[in-house]
Structures are given as C-alpha cells and as structure tokens.
Amino acid sequence: MKITTAYMGEVEINPSQIIKFEHGLPGFEDEKEFIQLPLSEASAYQVLQSVNTSGLAFIITSPYAIFAEYSFEMDKSVIQALDIKNDNEVAVFVIVSLKDTLENSTVNMKAPIVLNIENNLAKQIILEEDYAIRHQLAVEKKEV
Fold this sequence. Notes:
Elements: E1 2-5, E2 9-12, E3 19-21, E4 33-38, E5 45-50, E6 57-61, H1 76-81, E7 90-97, E8 106-107, E9 113-116, E10 121-124, E11 135-136
Parallel strand pairs: 3-10
Antiparallel strand pairs: 1-2, 3-4, 4-5, 5-6, 6-7, 7-8, 7-9, 8-11, 9-10
C-alpha cells in the first residue's frame, strides 16, 4: 500500500503495521490510523504519519532517551483499551515540537503515546504525574 507523507514523499507501507488510535489523537479525533516511519537508520526519532492525511505527521521519540527516570502509572482503562497483557507489549513515545534549533525544541512528557506493539493499538494519555508539556531537549543533553 502506498501513502503520501509529509516528510518523505510517497512511501510503500505494510498495512499490518498501521497503528490504530480508536479515538484519534487529541485535536485530531478523526485521524485514527498512523504509521511509524524511521527518520533515518540510526536516528532516535521517528515520524508518526497519518495514513489518510499526507500533511499530518508528528516527530516522536522515546521519552527514556531524554529522561531515563521517566515513569508513570498506567490507568486500568488504558490497559484494557489497548488489550495489554504484559509490560513487554508496551512501547512509549513522546511528541517532539520542533523549533528553529534542536536546543529550542521540546517534547511533551505530560501526554505520552502508549502503543501495544503486539496488536498496534495506541492511545495518547494525559498523565497525573508532574511532567512538562514543553520539556526542553537541551535540558537533558549530556556533556561528552
């Protein structure tokens, strides 16, 4: 199946890899099907591309790559909605807000995307925990 993407032009995707958001994403409730595409082979960032709207794509990354101690309690309703049976089925991503420079860019640590990698069901949740909506990428940058 071919789709047109926001960043990569036309790409071939495997329909079995489509991620389904039962209620869409907040602000994009009608957008229920996305595909995860790598930005490059070695990149920690991916593109969460709408299958139906070529101009709708989000840059996502693992919150643990930014803040290793990131953790939260998942509500039982989310576990049921995504049919999660064990922790090994779960992948967590945060949306990156790209600014003029990477140092000025932020990630939304308050509303992660939880994905069941076994059935491709996903949901963006809003956490009770005290995380920032605009957590700066540069804050966690380690000295080399």
